[in-house]
From TrEMBL:
The chain holds residues 1 to 409 of 585 of the full protein. This is DNA helicase RecQ. It comes from the Bacteria. Belongs to the helicase family. RecQ subfamily. Residues 211-359 form the Helicase C-terminal domain. Residues 25-191 form the Helicase ATP-binding domain. It comes from Sphingomonas populi. Its EC number is 5.6.2.4. Keywords: ATP-binding, DNA damage, DNA recombination, DNA repair, DNA-binding, Helicase, Hydrolase, Isomerase, Metal-binding, Nucleotide-binding, Zinc. The lineage of its organism: Bacteria, Pseudomonadati, Pseudomonadota, Alphaproteobacteria, Sphingomonadales. One of its GO terms (biological process) is DNA recombination.
């Protein structure tokens, strides 16, 4: 079998594998169908990019976002990997198809809606395939937090090439979603590899809202280094960004309603900056690789524990101490319940379970990390020593409060 280490070092310039990468890559090189569950920043892309270089034939990568594909394309091309994207916005589609037919592509990135397309399947039959990589694979599950109906159509494409190995990748999958991914994509249960989810350098802090603008402004004023503030709506982003400007920090907004050129500039400036705060909707951050984000602050309840983990996971990728703040109010839960009432009935139980899990996280008087890690099936000690509840046990605060009242009565 091919030795992946020399390729890791020469093509990717990394001295060694991280975590479970080596295990995942070996399975893929042995043509075994695999689901890799690895946290954000763990290096999932390498798990298919390296085999794509090592193996004969093209690796077809399914990815849900065009912007993400183009980021990946740039990064892969920069290190000499022969890659292309085939999406509706690409003007060089004819050339890409010709390159694929000539066997000149290591990586071909496509959107999931192509998979159902018969002419695309015909095209795939015209040149050797090395691998199917399905990125953000939780999108295939209605239990997942980001279901995309187009992911369901992937199975037709995969089954049309039964001898081509499949690698599904996701950062965020609870037990139910994982089982669903295996089933939907035809991967055996013993083909799942799960990496540790703990991010010990991130300190989790969760509090009720009182004056949310002031609470966020205090953090932004006090905490140095680059930071991301997540607001729930575009309007919320605009308002917060405006108010935070008075903290004296460099603050920029980011949401889908901004002029694309402004949005791209704000993102690029943030990535290059050592002290900027970006106020954004959750659309921000996917595919951004900025190692030195020192804090993430949620001005309101995230959509799910998976979303919370993914968004807070953008802090401290360099391993240095970082803080994840979250402020929530009872009205966030009321709104979430209302939203659940509006989704298709068969999806409501899953959505309700997700909201309950999130409620347990924000309301717990015990270790936050324990709840997070156990949610992802990771073993976790009772106390982590690096969350608000471990650092300031609420029981102790209540007891002094009770004692004070008792004494003053
Ligand atoms: P994920 O998709 O799991 O969030 P990425 O594939 O975007 O993560 O990788 C995150 C970062 O880790 C990238 O900057 C990548 O270059 C880097 N990386 C990946 N594998 C290694 C490795 N073995 N050694 C050092 N850095 C790595
Ligand atoms: Mg990724």
């Amino acid at each position: 079998m091919i030795d992946p280490l020399p390729i890791l070092q020469s093509t990717f310039g990394f001295p060694g594998f991280r975590g479970v990468q080596e295990q995942v890559v070996s399975r893929v090189l042995a043509a075994e169908n695999t689901l890799a569950v690895m946290p954000t920043g763990a290096g999932k892309s390498l798990c298919y990019q390296l085999p794509a270089v090592a193996l004969d034939g093209t690796c077809v990568v399914v990815s849900p976002l065009i912007a993400l594909m183009h980021d990946q394309l740039r990064a892969a091309t920069a290190i000499g990997i022969r890659a292309a994207t085939l999406t509706s916005v690409d003007t060089d589609q004819m050339e890409t198809i010709a390159r694929f037919r000539r066997g000149e592509l290591d990586l071909l990135y496509v959107a999931p809606e192509r998979a159902s397309n018969e002419s695309f399947r015909n095209l795939l039959g015209q040149s050797p395939l090395a691998l199917f990589a399905i990125d953000e694979a939780h999108c295939v599950s209605e239990w997942g937090h980001d279901f995309r109906p187009d992911y369901r159509l992937l199975r037709t494409m995969l089954d049309a090439f039964p001898h081509v190995p499949r690698l599904a990748l996701t950062a965020t999958a609870d037990a139910h979603t994982r089982a669903d991914i295996l089933e939907q994509l035809g991967i055996p249960h013993d083909g799942m590899i799960v990496a540790g989810f703990d991010r010990p350098n991130i300190q989790y802090r969760i509090s009720p809202k009182d004056n949310i603008t002031r609470q966020i402004a205090d953090i932004v004023a006090e905490q140095p280094g680059p930071g991301i503030v997540y607001a729930q709506t575009r309007k919320g982003v605009e308002q917060l960004a405006e108010r935070l400007a008075s903290t004296g920090r460099k603050v920029r907004p980011y949401h889908a309603g901004l002029d694309p050129a402004v949005r791209a500039r704000n993102q690029a400036d943030f990535v290059a900056s050592e002290d900027m705060v970006i106020v954004a909707t959750v659309a921000f951050g996917m595919g951004i690789d900025k190692p030195d984000v020192r804090f993430v602050a949620h001005a309101g309840l995230p959509k799910s524990i998976e979303g919370y983990y993914q968004e807070t996971g953008r802090a401290g990728r360099d391993g240095d101490p970082s803080i994840a703040h979250l402020f929530w109010g009872a009205e966030d839960f009321a709104k979430a319940r209302q939203r659940i009432g509006e989704v298709e009935p068969h999806r409501q139980p899953g959505e309700r379970a997700r909201l309950t899990a999130l409620g347990a996280l924000v309301e717990t008087p015990t270790c936050r990390r324990q709840i997070l890690l156990r949610h992802f099936g990771d073993p976790a000690p009772d106390t982590c020593g690096n969350c608000d509840n471990c650092l300031n046990p609420p029981g102790a605060i209540d007891a002094t409060e009770v004692a004070r009242k008792f004494l003053s009565a």
